[in-house]
Design goal:
Elements: H1 9-18, H2 27-34, H3 41-51, E1 59-60, H4 61-65, H5 80-90, E2 97-98, H6 100-107
Antiparallel strand pairs: 1-2
Length: 108
């Protein structure tokens, strides 16, 4: 899907399999498994642009819900609880959305 070519397909497959069950998604583990857990500003910027589907400059809750589908089209949608936990982990200024700098901090 959107990350094809940027990340190894076998890493994406393994990460998606690890969080296949509803309620099992952990953003830190997922980022580590797919190879996105880094200090690389370039990697963070590329990932942010992919996840910001509407190109608003922010990743909103609805975009987070579809997070896994950016890696594989038929991946599951995050549950409401997973989405809210993911948003809470990244939304440092509590504005209900994730900016580029917040996302970079989340990836570390």
């Amino acid at each position: 899907m959107a990350f094809s070519g940027l990340l190894r397909e076998e890493d994406i497959t393994a990460a998606l399999q690890a969080c296949q069950a509803a309620g099992s998604f952990d953003h830190k583990a997922f980022f580590a498994q797919v190879g996105l857990a880094s200090d690389s500003a370039v990697a963070a910027e590329k990932a942010f642009r992919i996840l910001d589907r509407d190109q608003s400059g922010f990743i909103e809750e609805e975009e987070l819900k579809l997070f896994l589908q950016n890696f594989k089209a038929d991946a599951r949608v995050l549950t409401d609880a997973e989405t809210k936990a993911f948003l809470a982990a990244a939304d440092l200024d509590s504005d209900g959305k994730i900016g580029a700098q917040e996302f970079r901090s989340l990836m570390k």
